[in-house]
Amino acid sequence: MRFLVVTHFISILWFYNIGLTNHCVAPNASTNDILSVNSILSCKLGLNENYLKTENSSHTSSLLKVKGYPEHLIYNRVPKAAGTTLRYLFRQQAEKRRYTILNKNIYVPFLLPFNVQQEVVSEFEDAKLPVIYERHMYFINFDVFQKPQPVYINVIRDPLQQVISSYYYSRSTCIDERRCYFNTTFVNETLNECVERRSASECIDASHGVSPVIPFFCGNEAACEQNKTYALEKAKQNIIDYYTVVGIVEELYNFLFVLEHLLPKYFANVRLLYISNGMKKENVRLNRSSDRNLSKTSQILLRAALANEYDLYEFIKTVFTSNFIKFYELWRLYDFKI
User: Fold this and answer.
1) What DSSP state is assigned to residue 245?
2) pTM confidence score
């Protein structure tokens, strides 16, 4: 439904701009080209500087290109944010598109010591290219190791929904698989009970089995887990500087649209695979506890405790929506294979 709404909105933009008479020549873009999408749009639509220089222009314009060495791609997946679905799609794509995929089933730790970061960097040197490396891990800056930056992608989810999913998933794996990464004193406690008995801030902590999100974009510095203000700003800057695209689970189809057109070597026709499998997941975990209905009070308290996470989520959502609209508009106007 949201996709249809966006499509309708873009149709309005199309008819508004259809009378423009600018003459542009589409570049001959191969799948390896790093594109200057803004320049194409500006030429084709006759858009002035005000169209591209919005309030968030430093964010949106900087993200409309592939960032990093295109033969190396990292998906440092945030837990409980469509990871199972995307891993399934990427593995299927690897067979069709003939690229290497390094799937790491290491769940914790997310914070990697320097020597482990070095090991991750070294794995790219031994892999057959092109390659996707996926793992639950915080952002690694390859500049530190004097190696080419990879292309970074990721997806996040509404923070409250991510907390609920993470909270009950950690309990499910602890009970069913004997993999416990939190204080098991609270294993049978619902999220509502946790908020009622303690503080909301404590209930969204790793000690209660909830995965942090902001450090996945901030990095492996101690401050990324200890200083919330620093971590938030650093995460935003890293997204601007190093991430080619960060999508949101609530608009996963649109995220795949951007991947498909921006990185066709890896993701050509990935939307068809997504749809043809009925938005299939490789496995669906049924949590032991079905009591996920949070009280209004618990929701208010948890949202307040997740203020920084919502700040980052809205930042990513704004940037992604802007970029998606530009990509879709370009696709409509140019029939241009990005």
Assistant:
1) E
2) 0.80
